Amino acid sequence: MRILMLTDYFPPHSGGGVEVVVDQLSRGMVDRGHHVSVLTLRTRGGERREERCNLRITRVPAVDLTGIVGVQFAVSVLAIPALISQLRSFKPDLIHVHNLFFRNSEAAALVARFSSTPMLLTLHLGDMGGGPSAVKALTALYEKTVGRCIVRAADQITGVSEAVASHAGTLGANPASVQVIPNGVDTAVFSPAESVPEIPTVLAVGRLVPNKGMDTLVKSVPEVLSKVPEARFVIAGDGPMNSSLRKLATSLGVEDSVEFLGHRSDVPDLLRAASVFTRPSTLEGMPLTVLEAMATGLPVVATPVGGTPELITDGQNGYLTPVGDSQTLARAIVDILSDRERAAAMGQRNLTKVRDEYTWERVVDRTETLYCEMVGGRVDG
């Protein structure tokens, strides 16, 4: 089968979940004998064109405006011509479009009117109502206009969680065409530490943008330290809120207990050095970092947004705390740091859950089955 993947972000770009999902799916399909062509934007370097085995990667010149607008956003005037070129040269059996808010997704919706190639749309985010007010308003306008056009252009739709799949219905999707295929995690890369960290360590990983809730985490630090004074907080990631978060830590007098690492490529090691993982987001789809923390055997403290409640059961394998509630977040962190036996039990439940339900092999299996259904058994000749 010949599969064309469309995404605005792909390695070496890192910082979000979509590029990881597309990379894992693409390599998984190639391993099964399929031909995959990835059309993406060139936002963080990488060769304009790469080809290895049955995987082709084309990076279209683009301008990354994330640092200016405060949310992940890139533009390219070449998206549509590049897609038309791919359809003519690669001749895909199926187009797999990732994320409603990408320029390549918009290009696919336009070109779909003139193409008979089946189109699968994967939604990576659900209701954006928990975001900042300006983002919420712009998102609602986009979804009612461009978003609906992209949804209508798709033959089938998948959501990375039940919450995301449900949101597809509000965009006009036919429920019969929507199903859930969750994200996965590489359990060979993300695995438990051999010993418990000596210093109680709270870890957060993610882009430093408003919807990740890192300000709520920093605000929780003083209360945690009042109960567990030896605790340290580690925040891995970069973004437009870097400076404001550092200033917040200083204003609260906790700058010596909070370490801002910036972008890191050693996240598995950081997870193994942590005692608890936290994700106080205002919105999510199916957070890969939560799955990665679970695969490392860590208890998780997160907010009940998007697909997170499908991963974390409050009091069982972690805690779910209200969005923006730094005090409840602090109490949950203290509870875990103060009881190693409870923390270990939570971490073990997470490890079991991931290995049983969220491996990439299972994700590739389900996606391949859907591909075959969509193309009616047609394969590359």
Structural account:
This protein has 381 residues and is an alpha/beta fold. It folds into two domains: 2-184 and 359-375, Rossmann fold, CATH 3.40.50.2000; 201-357, Rossmann fold (3-Layer(aba) Sandwich), CATH 3.40.50.2000. The protein is built from 14 helices and 16 strands. The chain has helices at residues 18-31, 66-69, 79-89, 103-111, 133-153, 162-170, 214-227, 242-251, 267-272, 288-295, 308-311, 326-337, 340-357, 360-375; strands spanning 2-6, 35-42, 49-52, 55-61, 63-64, 74-75, 94-98, 119-123, 156-159, 178-180, 201-205, 232-236, 258-262, 276-279, 300-302, 318-320. The protein has an eight-stranded mixed sheet, with helices on both faces. α6 (162-170) links the parallel β9 (156-159) and β10 (178-180). α1 (18-31) crosses α14 (360-375) and α7 (214-227) packs across α12.
